[in-house]
Amino acid sequence: MKRITISKGSFALVAALGLAFGSCQKMERPALGDYPRDTNPPGGPLKFYAAMDGSSVDSIRATYGDDKNVTYSTGIKGQAYKGSATSYIVYPSANDFTQSGSFSVSFWMKKTPHAANAEFVFALPTTNNIWHKSEMFMLIEDQNQTTTSLTATKFMIKDQWFEFVGANRIPNLTNGQWHHLVLVYDQTTSKLTYYVDGAALTGLSANQTDVRSGGQPRGAIGWSNASKFVIGGPSHHGLNATPDGWMANYSGELDQFRLYGKALTAAEVTELFANKK
């Protein structure tokens, strides 16, 4: 066998070149650990947390999203994601959130009515062959349905639509102020609860609260077909697909985006709201 010998001089030259090359690397993102965190034990209920404090990093897995034309503004705490017609973020996944039977989605939003089409706040793409390409999403309708005092909003979960339209629009959600929104699903009741600024919406119909499968209570939700996670746009962005013509990216601001693998209690939602989390 042929032996390769490296002289001391050659070794020194290689080491010097390696050091020089490493020192020229441009660090465009903060070092790991230099990002907002939240108290959450390993394997705890908080599965995804993007503080949007000047970057797209998910603090749970120290993973950055693939940012598209994203800028940041003053948020409810620190900085916030500032959306536009061309902005969105695609994350590799929603982490262990997709293993949850119950769940909660919590975030702060600031928005005014937009001119046309439906703007997607977030979306959980699916590998299923379904036209909207989603396991879950939230959208806000245009100014023909949405005003500063009443917001036409639709949630979709497992191809079941939960609509707040017409006389059932959500008050003040798009009045240009910061609002805290939490969507909670409890697998033991198969029901959804919606919180706005710490208070649960009341007087809702079964079509807005009851999650079904084959006409029966769904129970554990099951996200086995989920792929990627998108903030600020429809699922198509996570699947290298072209969104339908009526689909638009979110033009407002978002802050403190959290996904929990449990149904948050009313007290836990109040704590998030009161502490601007």
Automatic annotation (TrEMBL):
Keywords: Disulfide bond, Signal. InterPro entries: ConA-like_dom_sf, LamG-like. It comes from the Bacteria. SUPFAM superfamilies: Concanavalin A-like lectins/glucanases. Residues 101-267 form the LamG-like jellyroll fold domain. This is LamG-like jellyroll fold domain-containing protein. It comes from Flaviaesturariibacter amylovorans.
